[in-house]
Design brief:
The protein has two domains: 136 residues, HUPs (Rossmann fold); 185 residues, P-loop containing nucleotide triphosphate hydrolases (Rossmann fold), CATH 3.40.50. Strands 3-2-1-4-5 form a five-stranded parallel β-sheet, with helices on both faces. A five-stranded parallel β-sheet has the order 7-8-6-9-10, sandwiched between helices. It is of the alpha/beta class and 343 residues long. It contains 13 helices and ten strands.
Length: 343
């Protein structure tokens, strides 16, 4: 039997493959499907972002996705008029009566009675897709395969390798990426200047900053759980101010405000290795002091890696594994963070 108008209500916090299965199966059984996203202002992932994600994930002219921001109670025990409050919110945004409610939640039967419509439960026991949005928010890397590719970049654990010249950042970045089977963002300034065939000039700084961010965005798309960055905008700011006594505001804003999950700060207790792009051998202590102060000022959490290269590698891997156990970074989902990543 094909129904005319079906309804799905959910938080989609965040959307996952189980949600997409519910929507696809529901649409098979009706001519028109309305999907309502319900969000609260204090939730980590804002409703407008969930709406944007679903609109990109579900491209069907017969599926209408609506976002409601009503600050409704979340459980029946919170308010005596719980069901009537939700009925009012739902009916306010519907353009025509519904014939059936699709859900994979326990409240589906009760809500359908309140709305005076039929109900069909789809994968309620989570057999086909044993996942929940709560599990993803709590441990996204453990449930990586249930996150749609489109939104995986927001759940990456982003680790910056930082510190003065000639401390092994590029080598360790590559080692970590190989160990965790993922992408890494190389030191953009080095590649940029090698192509130019010269030393850095002040006019290069903004191009380096924007190029690095574009590379980060590109590498994020196909990264696997982690993304390792060989330097970042804070590093660009530090060197720009050291050499030119100035740094572009665009770079400064991102150096101060872009969020990452953690930084690995490589100490200067390894031998200096000469390189055509290195000229600060006699400033290692000064640069370490500058880097530490800038990290602290920007509120960047970091782990100091000291000792020989094997010891650093071991501590780095252990640190990254611990970071991988943490819940999602709420800063990634703010309007400011998304704006800052628009090059």
């Amino acid at each position: 039997m094909t129904f005319n108008h079906g309804l799905i209500l959910g938080k989609f916090y965040p959307p996952h493959l189980g949600h997409l299965h519910l929507i696809q199966e529901g649409k098979k059984k009706c001519n028109h499907l309305t999907v309502i996203i319900a969000s609260l202002a204090n939730e980590i992932i804002p409703g407008w972002l969930r709406l944007d994600w679903l609109n990109k994930l579900v491209m069907d002219p017969d599926i209408e996705i609506i976002w409601i921001e009503d600050e409704n109670p979340q459980y029946p025990e919170e308010h005596p008029d719980f069901w009537q409050i939700w009925k009012k919110s739902i009916e306010r945004v519907l353009t025509s009566p519904i014939d059936i409610l699709f859900s994979s939640e326990v409240y589906g039967e009760t809500l359908s009675r309140i709305l005076g419509t039929k109900h069909l439960s789809i994968d309620k026991e989570r057999i086909q897709f044993p996942i929940s949005a709560t599990k993803i928010r709590t441990k996204p890397l453990d449930h990586w395969d249930y996150i749609p590719d489109l939104i995986k970049p927001f759940f990456l654990k982003k680790i910056v390798l930082t510190g003065p010249e000639s401390v092994g950042k590029s080598t360790l970045t590559s080692i970590l990426a190989e160990h965790f089977q993922t992408n890494f963002v190389p030191e953009y300034a080095r590649e940029y200047l090698e192509k130019k065939g010269r030393s850095v000039i002040e006019d290069d700084i903004l191009s380096i900053g924007k190029g690095h961010l574009l590379d980060e965005i590109e590498k994020s798309i196909k990264a696997n759980r982690y993304l390792f960055l060989d330097t970042d905008h804070l590093t660009t700011k530090i060197y720009s101010e050291f050499y030119f006594k100035n740094s572009p505001e665009w770079v400064n804003e991102r150096a101060k405000n872009l969020s990452y999950d953690h930084s690995l700060f490589l100490n200067i207790d390894v031998p200096w290795i000469s390189d055509p792009q290195r000229d600060l051998e006699n400033y290692r202590e000064e640069m370490k002091f500058i880097f530490q102060n800038e990290m602290i000022s920007a509120g960047r959490p970091f782990t100091l890696l000291s000792g020989n290269f094997m010891e650093r590698e071991k501590l780095a891997i252990e640190t990254v594994k611990e970071i991988g156990k943490l819940p999602i970074n709420p800063d990634y989902f703010t309007s400011e963070q998304i704006h800052l990543r628009n090059v």
